[in-house]
Serine/threonine-protein kinase pkn1
Amino acid sequence: MKPDINWIQIPSGYATIGSNEEDMKKAAEFWKDKLLNPTYGREKKFQKWLYKEFPSYQPYINEFFISDTVVSNELYQSYCDETGQTYPESLTNEELGGGKDHPAWGMDIEDAFSFCQWLSGKLGIDVSIPTEEEWEYAARGNTRNQYPWGDEFDPSYCNTHESNIEKTTPVRHYEKGRSLFGLYDMGGNVEEWVNTKYHVYEGGIEVVDDLTETLGNDYYILKGGSFARGGDLCRVARRHGKHPDPVFRFTGFRLVTRQKQHIKVGV
């Protein structure tokens, strides 16, 4: 099997990464009474978490190519069948969305790296997962959009707790929710691993929270939120991590390459 992946070309340019004070104020005001755990807003824990995104900065990003969706169950099953890897829960738990066109989830980042090594051999090019900067750039370019589709949250544009679906949806289901460059599900469905470990942005402040207390200061970042969590995690700038609570196990990934040879570029 030669995987048929729809690659999206992301042109070189300056990206908007993180949040400024205005962005954080807007997010805090909108979500303070809408969080799954309202005490996080009342006790200002949420407002503190937002400082992980501060300050905003604008790095120059070289051209790359990124898959329009996260890796699907169909593609991940091919990898497992060829390599003898254990099936993730997305392939065994039909109640939470087990269709072949649904996202593969339940993998740690080491599984994502292993998959990319296998796929690189299949395609004859270097394949990896995006960095945090690449992911944010693919989600909103150089805009200040809060969400991949624009500046306002809309549960009909994504699969989050507010959508009341309570399981995954097909990876190309939400046309209105596509990002600036045409990517699906950069908000909701499953959280996405990026190839960047948590660090304080230059000029920012260290934030101690449940993640740092549980994982320390050396964990890989997750982006985009999932069907099991609130839409606040859909914010492009939000920096999450894999908390050990089972409600955070819905983790998948999408692919990047920096080599145009032998790939199909689409929109």
The chain has a mean pLDDT of 93. The beta strands are 7-10, 13-14, 60-61, 64-67, 127-128, 191-197, 220-223, 251-252, 256-257. The chain is about 25% helix and 10% strand.
